[in-house]
């Protein structure tokens, strides 16, 4: 039992991990604003959010037109705002996100390549490695397309609600 306590304490002693909620440990990936891994102990509740896509900038903006949704950075902010709002409705916050999957589309405006910089510019407004160690583990994929030809971003997340 003594050794188990030491093993649990080691990441904290060496500064490679941080805990935000009881039973959640983030292992930061150096040089990136993400966690290399996140541990969630038994007894916590996982909350799976369906993928969110960008909202139009205005209700009367035409469907299927890139300008109606904005560039990748603007779309990322739109999606993350929706995620933040939904989490808040559930009594959670962005710091409770432990896993994120990002789907990016490369459009004609980027010669078919995903705009990773634009995504990171939007993402960093919500997950800033200089301000917190509580960053999600994340995967980012370039995909061929989403349901709307103007969408460049879809994000799904898993959050954790600490056991009471």
From TrEMBL:
One Gene Ontology term of the molecular function aspect: deaminase activity
Keyword vocabulary terms for this entry: Signal
Signal peptide annotation: 1-21
PROSITE patterns to which the protein is assigned, alphabetical: UPF0076 (PS01094)
InterPro entries reported in the protein's UniProt record: RidA_CS (IPR019897), RutC-like_sf (IPR035959), YjgF/YER057c/UK114 (IPR006175)
UniProt entry tagged with the keyword Signal: yes
Tagged with keyword Iron-sulfur: no
SUPFAM superfamilies (alphabetical): YjgF-like
Membrane spanning residue stretches: none
GO CC aspect terms: cytosol
Family statement: Belongs to the RutC family.
Name used for this protein in its record: RidA family protein
Organism: Proteus terrae subsp. cibarius
């Amino acid at each position: 039992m003594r050794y188990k306590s030491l093993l649990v304490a080691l990441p904290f002693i060496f500064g490679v991990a941080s805990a935000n909620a009881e039973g959640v440990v983030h292992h930061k990936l150096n040089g990136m604003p993400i966690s290399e891994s996140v541990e969630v102990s038994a007894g916590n509740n996982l909350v799976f959010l369906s993928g969110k896509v960008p909202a139009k900038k205005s209700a009367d903006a035409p469907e299927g037109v890139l300008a109606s949704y904005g560039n990748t950075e603007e779309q990322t902010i739109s999606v993350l705002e929706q995620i933040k709002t939904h989490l808040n409705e559930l009594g959670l916050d962005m710091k409770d996100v432990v896993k994120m999957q990002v789907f990016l589309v490369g459009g004609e405006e980027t010669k078919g390549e995903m705009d990773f910089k634009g995504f990171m510019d939007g993402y960093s407004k919500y997950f800033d490695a200089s301000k917190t160690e509580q960053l999600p583990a994340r995967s980012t994929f370039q995909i061929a397309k989403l349901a709307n030809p103007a969408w460049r971003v879809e994000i799904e997340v898993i959050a954790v609600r600490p056991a009471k």
